[in-house]
Specification:
Blueprint (H helix, E strand, L loop, with lengths): L6 H13 L4 E4 L11 H10 L3 E6 L6 H7 L3 E7 L5 H8 L4 H19 L5 E8 L7 H11 L3 E6 L19 H12 L7 E4 L1 H8 L8
Parallel strand pairs: 1-2, 2-3, 3-4, 4-5, 5-6
Helix pairs in contact: 1-2
Length: 215
Amino acid sequence: KGKNLEFSLLKKLMPELSALGIKSIFIAGTGEPTLHPNFIEIIKLIKKNNIDVALNTNMLAYSKEKIEMTLEYLSWIRISINAATPKIYSKIHNCAEKNFEKVIENIITAVKYKKDKKLNTTIGSQIVLIDDNISEPLKLAKLIKSIGVDYFSVKPYNEHHNHLNKNQISTTKITEDYLNALEKNLKKLETPDFKVILRKLAFKLSKQKQKNYTA
C-alpha cells in the first residue's frame, strides 16, 4: 500500500520553493491526486505561496465539494478519460461501469462551476489510444465538446500509463491510415472554443523500436 506525502512536509517545503523562484507545480502521478486526504489544503497552499498549480485527474473522485473548493486556484486541469461508453470504460480501467457516469457527472459539474464563476481555469481532456478503445476517440470528442470542455487530446500508449489494465493492452490496430482519418474527423469538431490535438509524431515515435548502442 502506497503512502501519502505528508501535508506537514509540504507546508515547510512550499515557502522554500517559492523563495527559490519556482513558478508552477503540476500535480500528477500513478495514483489519483484528488484522493489525498489533504488535497484541498494542498492546492490552496501552493497557490498561497504564489506558485501556479495544475492537475491531472481521472475525475472520479474530484467531487462537487472538491471542485468548488479548488477549481479557482488551478491554472488548468487535464482529465484522463479513455472511453466514451460505460462498457469500454469499465473494460479498460477494470472497474464498475457506473464509474463512467460519475466521471461525466463530475466533468459537467466542473465546467458549469467554471462558467458560473467566470474562472480562467482551462479544462482539457485526453484519451490514451489502444486497440480496445479504437472506436472511442471521435465519440468521446463529441461528448466532451457538448459538455463544454476546452480541448481534447489523443495520445499514444506508453508503459508509464499505469491507470490502464495492462493485461489487455495492444496497439496493433493503430495504423497511419487510421490516425490520418481520425485526425481529419476530429478537426471537423474544432471551434474557437474547442480545440483537438492528435499527437501524430508521438504515435510515430512510440512505434519505433529502441535502438541498441555499443560502447
